[in-house]
Amino acid sequence: MTAIKNTTFKVRPDNAKTLEIDSMSMFEYGVIVYDTDLNINKYWNGTAWVAELISEIQIDVGDLPVYEASVYVANPSVTINSNITGSVAYKKPTNKDIDELDMDSFTLKFEALAGGFNVKIKGNEGSIHGEFIISYTYSL
Question: What pLDDT, on a 0 to 100 scale, did the predictor assign at position 17?
Answer without folding.
Answer: 93
